[in-house]
Amino acid sequence: MLAKLSVRTAVTALAALGLLATAPSATAALRDPAAKPAAASAQSPSPDVTVKMPSAVADRLGTDRQTLIDAVSTDVLSRSHDAEGLSPKAAVSKLAGESRKVVVDVRTASANWARGVAYVEAPRTHHAEPEGWLYIAHRKDGQWIPGLEGDRAFADHVAKSPLVGTAERQTMTAYAQRKATPQQETPSVEAAAANTNGLLLPWMPDYYMTLTGGAHSHTGSTGYWSSLDFAGGNASGRVRSSREGTATSMCGAGGGWTRVIHPGGFSTDYYHMWNSTYYNGTSIARSALLGNIGTDTCAGGAATGAHVHWSLRTYDANYNGQYTWLNGRTIGGWAWWNGSSQYTGCATRSGVTACPGTAIYNRTG
Prior knowledge:
The chain is of the alpha+beta class. It folds into two domains: 7-164, no CATH class; 189-361, Glucose Permease (Domain IIA). Helix content is 20%, strand content 29%. The protein has helices spanning 7-16, 28-31, 38-41, 55-61, 65-79, 88-97, 152-160, 166-174, 189-194; strands at residues 50-52, 102-110, 113-120, 131-140, 143-148, 208-217, 225-231, 238-240, 245-249, 258-261, 266-271, 280-284, 289-292, 308-315, 321-323, 330-331, 334-337, 346-349, 352-354, 359-361. Strands 6, 7, 9, 10, 11, 12, 14, 15 and 20 form a nine-stranded antiparallel sheet that branches. It has a five-stranded mixed sheet with strand order 1-2-3-4-5, sandwiched between helices. A four-stranded antiparallel sheet has the order 16-17-18-19. A hairpin with a 7-residue loop joins strand 6 and strand 7 (225-231). The longest helix has 15 residues, at 65-79. The chain is globular, with a radius of gyration of 20 Å. Residues 1-28 form the signal peptide.
């Protein structure tokens, strides 16, 4: 996993991993706030934003990389629930006071295009989970126009950017072309059960893990109860994709957070893994190996025992990924139901009810 350091110290850590050139000329604008363009210095959040960037990407972007980091981090903070109502600079300061980082990971770049992952770390408390987005940015008329998942700009960039491969573009647009959304405001149980498009639980079919946490919100506090926790079982602790799609390692190489966008209108998140396979918009098959259950907190939060925190997200016609409700949906052959409080919900299948503490098999039908 890449060290998540401030911009001023990221260079040393990345160079040690062979991911960033050690030549001062390749990184001066990021290391030295005085090297920023004067116009950006007053309100730029990026001197305190953690930047991950391979040396080849830094060289390709040249001096313009600072404005890219400014544009992406400003967009991220405008979308972050925890930065609501604050200026970008004030938001970064507030988060830093809570020992939380804003991370912009620039994975690839070409002429006038850049793409990667950006996230806001979760509080270092039990059940807290991070906020994260894929982004694509386009430089036009000397300005970077970033698009985060759900932005109109993101959809436009997916269609045009040479940094999006053919298979990934097909997966990301497959549901958008239906001009519909899998998330209804007042869904019926019948519609919910039928509308998961064959998603499996996050391990191999016909093996079992133990349900350690019933339906709860991704953050453990507010929002749709979209998430489940699993551990143990006879699946050797191996976490696998719920369906085919394109996978991205949100924390970078070695980090325990992966997102998979599926072609059927959903995406899924997997957190706390160790020994993770690195993916970067990579096409994968159903049940592809993502990692092992673990206690990784590469983007904040906490974990007291090895498990996978699995979350259901939509991926709608606007390329918008949002954590969504589990209640009434069938995943892995089990219908999932909310409990009276978070983490207490159960699942039913063929007249059997499985609550937290129960080992359940992953079924394809």
